[in-house]
Specification:
Keywords: Hydrolase, Nucleus, Protease, Thiol protease, Transcription, Transcription regulation, Ubl conjugation pathway. The protein is α+β, with helices and mostly antiparallel strands and 358 residues long. 52% of the residues lie in helices and 9% in strands. It has a 6-stranded antiparallel sheet, sandwiched between helices. It is rod-shaped.
Length: 358
Amino acid sequence: MESIFHEKQEGSLCAQHCLNNLLQGEYFSPVELSSIAHQLDEEERMRMAEGGVTSEDYRTFIQQPSGNMDDSGFFSIQVISNALKVWGLELILFNSPEYQRLGIDPINERSFICNYKEHWFTVRKLGKQWFNLNSLLTGPELISDTYLALFLAQLQQEGYSIFVVKGDLPDCEADQLLQMIRVHQMHRPKLIGEELAQIKDQRVQTVDSDEQTLEVNDGPGILDGEEEDLQRALALSRQQIDMEDEEADLRRAIQLSMQGSSRNIPQDVPQTSGAQLSSEELRKRREAYFERQQPPPQQQQQQEDPPAQLSHPREAPTTSSRVVGSDTGDTSEEDMLQAAVTMSLETVRNNFITEQKK
């Protein structure tokens, strides 16, 4: 379709684009169309002056802006019609009674000019195929013969005025070429605004994709370092909690052992109330406990049987505790602590049995 002449929209010069796309060449410029518009304005002024230049109608007409053109580049149907008369072409309203009485099939025509408000565009047959040469499109749009009548009817429903171009159009290269070959359109052209919006969206998506790529490239290193620091902090926290739990368990065991043997503590040994005992108080209680467990020196020499098991004030334990030999006087601090722990476990077990019996 490169041989087809197609002017794209510039400003509001759609009337100029419509005429040039119809004639397939740069036949008209804004200056030439403005000249035609001024000529029409002068003809209208002269007709109004026939009723008197002092009349109210004439003064009102003079004060009004031109109805054939404006500063934006719009030109009226009268300007277009006069421009086509130069080439011996005439415009007939497609849906007028005069034309409808002719009963002509649209595909047997050569071209149409369509207008809605201030926009003009051409639909023309080149060779044996129809093309929509709207200047708002990115290129010519192929229209099949079967779709042409439906396309024109749709334009009428949308409020378009359609004019049939009567007369012989000037020869053009595209018409001669398409008389010999037929073209096939793989992709329909888009509106210029849609194409610009699509290009803008593609640019935005490209920028977003680049930013995401940078985030993906920079992110893992930072995340890995933060994750390692978090894991180390959690591990240290768990270790600290475990150490505190073990220390608390040992302290509770020693306290239970002291509570279980509180009945046998002499009156001269002070007792400390409350759940927490200091290290000095625990040491004193352990020493008092083991002093009571040691027999007098005379009895220790006469005794031949194995030393008796540690007894509980309430009930004899089923599991034997640590045996205290004849050398208990030399009991080390570690042995004292072990004995306290053993006694605490026995106390807990006996308390549990007692609770079950209740």
